[in-house]
Amino acid sequence: MSSSNIRQIRRIGFLVFTLAMTALLVKLGMWQMSRGAEKEALLSQLAERSQQEVTALASLPQELKGTRVKLAGQFDTSKSMLLDNQTFEGRVGYRWFLPFRSDNQWVLVELGWVAAPATRETLPALPTLDGSYSVSGTIDFPSERVVLAHVETEVGWPQRVQSIDIKSLEQASRLSLKPWLIRGDVISDSNGESFSTGAKPIWEPVVMKPEKHYAYAMQWFGLALVVVIGFGLWWRKGRI
Protein backbone atom coordinates (compact mmCIF):
# COMPACT_ATOMS: atom_id res chain seq x y z
CA MET A 1 0.00 0.00 0.00
CA SER A 2 1.38 3.37 -1.02
CA SER A 3 2.12 6.11 1.48
CA SER A 4 -0.60 8.30 -0.05
CA ASN A 5 -3.21 5.58 0.54
CA ILE A 6 -2.07 5.15 4.15
CA ARG A 7 -2.26 8.89 4.62
CA GLN A 8 -5.78 8.96 3.17
CA ILE A 9 -6.90 6.16 5.50
CA ARG A 10 -5.49 8.06 8.47
CA ARG A 11 -7.32 11.21 7.42
CA ILE A 12 -10.62 9.34 7.12
CA GLY A 13 -10.03 7.62 10.46
CA PHE A 14 -9.33 10.93 12.12
CA LEU A 15 -12.44 12.40 10.51
CA VAL A 16 -14.59 9.57 11.90
CA PHE A 17 -13.00 9.97 15.34
CA THR A 18 -13.62 13.73 15.30
CA LEU A 19 -17.25 13.30 14.29
CA ALA A 20 -17.82 10.71 17.04
CA MET A 21 -16.10 12.86 19.68
CA THR A 22 -18.02 15.96 18.61
CA ALA A 23 -21.34 14.07 18.72
CA LEU A 24 -20.51 12.79 22.22
CA LEU A 25 -19.61 16.25 23.52
CA VAL A 26 -22.75 17.80 22.03
CA LYS A 27 -24.85 15.01 23.53
CA LEU A 28 -23.34 15.66 26.96
CA GLY A 29 -24.07 19.35 26.57
CA MET A 30 -27.68 18.68 25.59
CA TRP A 31 -28.08 16.36 28.58
CA GLN A 32 -26.85 19.09 30.91
CA MET A 33 -29.26 21.54 29.28
CA SER A 34 -32.18 19.17 29.83
CA ARG A 35 -31.16 18.61 33.46
CA GLY A 36 -31.01 22.36 33.99
CA ALA A 37 -34.49 22.76 32.52
CA GLU A 38 -35.80 19.97 34.78
CA LYS A 39 -34.29 21.64 37.84
CA GLU A 40 -35.82 25.01 36.85
CA ALA A 41 -39.26 23.41 36.48
CA LEU A 42 -38.89 21.63 39.82
CA LEU A 43 -37.82 24.78 41.66
CA SER A 44 -40.68 26.74 40.09
CA GLN A 45 -43.14 24.03 41.14
CA LEU A 46 -41.79 23.93 44.68
CA ALA A 47 -41.87 27.72 44.95
CA GLU A 48 -45.53 27.71 43.90
CA ARG A 49 -46.43 25.04 46.45
CA SER A 50 -44.62 26.86 49.22
CA GLN A 51 -46.75 30.00 48.89
CA GLN A 52 -49.26 28.72 51.43
CA GLU A 53 -48.37 27.18 54.79
CA VAL A 54 -50.50 24.23 55.92
CA THR A 55 -51.13 24.05 59.66
CA ALA A 56 -52.95 20.70 59.95
CA LEU A 57 -52.24 17.27 58.52
CA ALA A 58 -55.88 16.92 57.51
CA SER A 59 -55.48 19.95 55.21
CA LEU A 60 -52.55 18.64 53.20
CA PRO A 61 -52.95 18.72 49.39
CA GLN A 62 -52.59 15.62 47.22
CA GLU A 63 -49.25 16.82 45.85
CA LEU A 64 -47.20 16.72 49.04
CA LYS A 65 -43.63 17.30 47.88
CA GLY A 66 -42.63 20.92 48.39
CA THR A 67 -45.63 21.83 50.54
CA ARG A 68 -44.84 24.21 53.39
CA VAL A 69 -46.19 23.18 56.78
CA LYS A 70 -46.29 24.57 60.30
CA LEU A 71 -47.43 21.86 62.66
CA ALA A 72 -47.88 21.89 66.42
CA GLY A 73 -47.04 18.82 68.46
CA GLN A 74 -44.45 16.98 70.52
CA PHE A 75 -41.13 15.34 69.70
CA ASP A 76 -40.15 11.88 70.86
CA THR A 77 -36.54 12.68 71.77
CA SER A 78 -36.01 9.17 73.09
CA LYS A 79 -35.80 8.00 69.46
CA SER A 80 -33.26 10.27 67.80
CA MET A 81 -31.96 9.08 64.44
CA LEU A 82 -28.62 10.22 63.06
CA LEU A 83 -27.92 9.96 59.34
CA ASP A 84 -24.23 9.09 59.10
CA ASN A 85 -21.44 10.53 56.93
CA GLN A 86 -22.86 14.02 56.40
CA THR A 87 -20.38 16.83 55.80
CA PHE A 88 -20.93 20.57 56.19
CA GLU A 89 -18.32 23.25 55.55
CA GLY A 90 -15.60 20.61 55.53
CA ARG A 91 -16.67 19.07 58.85
CA VAL A 92 -18.00 15.55 59.38
CA GLY A 93 -21.29 15.09 61.17
CA TYR A 94 -24.81 13.74 61.10
CA ARG A 95 -28.25 14.87 60.01
CA TRP A 96 -30.55 14.62 63.00
CA PHE A 97 -34.09 13.24 62.65
CA LEU A 98 -36.82 12.97 65.28
CA PRO A 99 -40.34 11.53 65.27
CA PHE A 100 -42.91 14.29 65.74
CA ARG A 101 -46.51 13.73 66.86
CA SER A 102 -49.09 16.11 65.45
CA ASP A 103 -52.84 15.54 65.21
CA ASN A 104 -52.26 12.08 66.73
CA GLN A 105 -50.05 11.10 63.79
CA TRP A 106 -46.32 10.55 63.61
CA VAL A 107 -44.03 12.10 61.01
CA LEU A 108 -40.24 12.17 60.78
CA VAL A 109 -38.68 15.63 61.04
CA GLU A 110 -35.18 16.55 59.95
CA LEU A 111 -33.84 19.13 62.40
CA GLY A 112 -30.52 19.70 60.65
CA TRP A 113 -26.82 18.95 60.79
CA VAL A 114 -24.87 18.32 63.99
CA ALA A 115 -21.11 17.93 64.28
CA ALA A 116 -19.63 14.52 65.02
CA PRO A 117 -17.44 14.05 68.11
CA ALA A 118 -13.75 13.28 67.71
CA THR A 119 -14.24 9.50 67.86
CA ARG A 120 -16.74 7.14 66.22
CA GLU A 121 -17.45 5.54 69.58
CA THR A 122 -19.04 8.77 70.82
CA LEU A 123 -22.32 10.18 69.51
CA PRO A 124 -23.25 13.89 69.60
CA ALA A 125 -24.88 15.26 72.74
CA LEU A 126 -28.45 16.03 71.71
CA PRO A 127 -30.84 18.29 73.66
CA THR A 128 -34.06 16.96 75.12
CA LEU A 129 -37.06 18.65 73.53
CA ASP A 130 -39.75 18.27 76.14
CA GLY A 131 -43.13 19.95 75.86
CA SER A 132 -44.96 21.34 72.86
CA TYR A 133 -43.32 22.84 69.78
CA SER A 134 -44.20 24.06 66.31
CA VAL A 135 -42.26 22.75 63.33
CA SER A 136 -42.01 24.83 60.17
CA GLY A 137 -40.56 23.16 57.13
CA THR A 138 -41.04 21.57 53.74
CA ILE A 139 -42.50 18.16 52.99
CA ASP A 140 -40.15 15.86 51.09
CA PHE A 141 -39.80 12.16 50.36
CA PRO A 142 -36.81 9.93 51.14
CA SER A 143 -34.62 9.79 48.06
CA GLU A 144 -31.35 8.34 46.87
CA ARG A 145 -29.66 11.54 48.13
CA VAL A 146 -31.13 11.31 51.64
CA VAL A 147 -32.54 7.86 52.42
CA LEU A 148 -32.88 6.47 55.95
CA ALA A 149 -32.38 2.78 56.74
CA HIS A 150 -32.00 0.95 60.04
CA VAL A 151 -28.56 -0.54 60.64
CA GLU A 152 -28.85 -3.92 62.31
CA THR A 153 -25.55 -3.60 64.14
CA GLU A 154 -26.68 -0.45 65.95
CA VAL A 155 -28.49 -0.93 69.25
CA GLY A 156 -30.15 1.57 71.54
CA TRP A 157 -30.81 5.24 70.94
CA PRO A 158 -29.78 7.55 69.38
CA GLN A 159 -29.88 5.26 66.34
CA ARG A 160 -27.08 5.80 63.81
CA VAL A 161 -28.27 4.99 60.28
CA GLN A 162 -26.58 4.93 56.90
CA SER A 163 -29.61 5.64 54.72
CA ILE A 164 -33.34 6.19 55.23
CA ASP A 165 -35.98 3.51 54.92
CA ILE A 166 -39.22 4.57 56.59
CA LYS A 167 -40.43 0.97 56.97
CA SER A 168 -37.25 -0.06 58.76
CA LEU A 169 -37.45 2.99 60.98
CA GLU A 170 -41.03 2.15 61.87
CA GLN A 171 -39.89 -1.27 63.05
CA ALA A 172 -36.99 0.19 65.03
CA SER A 173 -39.05 2.93 66.68
CA ARG A 174 -42.36 1.01 66.89
CA LEU A 175 -44.10 4.11 65.61
CA SER A 176 -46.42 4.39 62.63
CA LEU A 177 -44.65 7.00 60.52
CA LYS A 178 -45.86 8.84 57.46
CA PRO A 179 -44.12 7.73 54.22
CA TRP A 180 -42.79 11.26 53.83
CA LEU A 181 -40.81 13.58 56.10
CA ILE A 182 -40.49 17.25 56.97
CA ARG A 183 -37.28 19.16 56.30
CA GLY A 184 -37.54 21.46 59.29
CA ASP A 185 -36.05 24.94 59.17
CA VAL A 186 -37.68 26.70 62.15
CA ILE A 187 -38.59 25.20 65.53
CA SER A 188 -40.77 27.36 67.79
CA ASP A 189 -41.55 26.82 71.47
CA SER A 190 -44.98 27.02 73.10
CA ASN A 191 -44.62 30.83 73.27
CA GLY A 192 -44.13 31.05 69.51
CA GLU A 193 -40.47 32.03 69.83
CA SER A 194 -37.78 30.41 67.69
CA PHE A 195 -35.98 27.67 69.56
CA SER A 196 -32.44 26.57 68.75
CA THR A 197 -31.83 22.84 68.84
CA GLY A 198 -28.15 23.25 68.05
CA ALA A 199 -28.70 21.64 64.64
CA LYS A 200 -28.15 23.63 61.46
CA PRO A 201 -30.72 23.20 58.67
CA ILE A 202 -28.76 22.46 55.50
CA TRP A 203 -31.33 20.80 53.23
CA GLU A 204 -31.82 22.24 49.76
CA PRO A 205 -34.49 21.08 47.28
CA VAL A 206 -31.83 20.53 44.61
CA VAL A 207 -28.15 19.87 45.16
CA MET A 208 -26.99 21.34 41.86
CA LYS A 209 -28.65 24.55 40.71
CA PRO A 210 -29.86 24.94 37.09
CA GLU A 211 -27.21 27.59 36.45
CA LYS A 212 -24.48 25.06 37.14
CA HIS A 213 -25.99 22.59 34.69
CA TYR A 214 -26.08 25.30 32.04
CA ALA A 215 -22.46 26.21 32.78
CA TYR A 216 -21.42 22.58 32.34
CA ALA A 217 -23.39 22.47 29.09
CA MET A 218 -21.47 25.47 27.78
CA GLN A 219 -18.21 23.74 28.68
CA TRP A 220 -19.20 20.61 26.70
CA PHE A 221 -20.31 22.71 23.73
CA GLY A 222 -17.08 24.68 23.95
CA LEU A 223 -15.02 21.51 23.90
CA ALA A 224 -16.97 20.30 20.87
CA LEU A 225 -16.19 23.57 19.10
CA VAL A 226 -12.48 23.27 19.97
CA VAL A 227 -12.40 19.73 18.58
CA VAL A 228 -14.03 20.84 15.32
CA ILE A 229 -11.76 23.87 14.90
CA GLY A 230 -8.67 21.82 15.72
CA PHE A 231 -9.65 19.17 13.23
CA GLY A 232 -10.30 21.78 10.55
CA LEU A 233 -6.87 23.35 11.03
CA TRP A 234 -5.05 20.01 10.90
CA TRP A 235 -7.06 18.87 7.88
CA ARG A 236 -6.32 22.04 5.90
CA LYS A 237 -2.62 21.86 6.64
CA GLY A 238 -2.57 18.22 5.64
CA ARG A 239 -0.69 17.06 8.74
CA ILE A 240 -2.55 13.77 8.83
Automatic annotation (TrEMBL):
Keyword ATP-binding belongs to the record: no
CDD domains, A to Z: SURF1 (cd06662)
GO CC term (a single one): plasma membrane
Cellular location(s): Cell membrane; Membrane
Cited Pfam families: SURF1
PROSITE patterns: SURF1
Main location: membrane
InterPro entries: Surf1/Shy1 (IPR002994), Surf1/Surf4 (IPR045214)
Family: Belongs to the SURF1 family.
The protein, known as: SURF1-like protein
